[in-house]
Amino acid sequence: MTDSYDLNELREELLTLGAATLYEASGWDTFLPPQIRPAWPGARIVGRALPVKAAAGDNLPLHLAVERAQPGDVLVVDAGGAPHGYWGEVLAVAAQSRGVLGLVIHGGVRDVDRLEELGFAAFSSLIALQGTLKDDAGTVGDAIRIGTASIEEGDIVIADRDGVAVIPAGIFADTLEYARARALREEQYMNRLRDGELTMDLLGLRLPAEP
């Protein structure tokens, strides 16, 4: 479980391991759709998920989530990929004041220059100008599904240039150990490749010779 881990202490290690390695080490479909990309260059996140479900074109649940959020949270929002600017400078400033570390949304954001200036890490499936309503409360804290990944409150979010992985809290400890072992093994592979070995031999990709 994650309770025995301080994510602040693990942040740099998790970012060095990267979303791709942690996803592969998990053995689960923990990756979010590849359309979800950093809203500005260099955005990176490690934190605990606060899941949010928003109706198309309505960002009231995001305001409610900021009110509920705890320091270290990352809002993970299923907005169905709708082309609206659900999040911008106002919500980013409000979120930062509460210790929210970032946003991952299957939907749009705007004010991306200001988000970058604020250093507020946002990952979205698109950038969109169109505004939103504030009528439908959606859900905050209930489990959601984005693509093949199920996200529950307290799951671990790792997001970087490769994409976004959300590791279930219950397998985080094992995933971290597997990721460390995988990274060590890959470094050993890299050394052998630098010495001239070929991937065909290193990975056992050659067909057996015919008798």
Top keywords for this entry?
Glucose Oxidase, domain 1, two-stranded antiparallel sheet, Putative 4-hydroxy-4-methyl-2-oxoglutarate aldolase, EC 4.1.3.17, alpha/beta, 211 residues, elongated
Overview of the molecule:
- By secondary structure, the protein is an alpha/beta fold.
- The protein has a domain at 30-164: Ribonuclease E inhibitor RraA/RraA-like (Glucose Oxidase, domain 1, 3-Layer(bba) Sandwich), CATH 3.50.30.
- The protein contains 6 helices and 11 strands.
- A hairpin with a 2-residue loop joins strand 10 (156-160) and strand 11 (163-167).
- Helix 1 crosses helix 5 (172-194).
- The protein starts with 6 loop residues before the first helix and ends in a 9-residue tail after the last helix.
- The model has no long low-confidence stretch (mean pLDDT 95).
- It catalyses: 4-hydroxy-4-methyl-2-oxoglutarate = 2 pyruvate; oxaloacetate + H(+) = pyruvate + CO2.
Sheet bearing the most strands, described? Answer: 9 strands, mixed
CATH architecture field of the domain at 30-164: 3-Layer(bba) Sandwich
The CATH topology label of the domain at 30-164 is: Glucose Oxidase, domain 1
N-C termini distance: 52 Å
Structural shape: elongated
Mean pLDDT: 95
Quick description:
By secondary structure, this protein is an alpha/beta fold. The protein has six helices and eleven strands. The N and C termini lie far apart (about 50 Å).
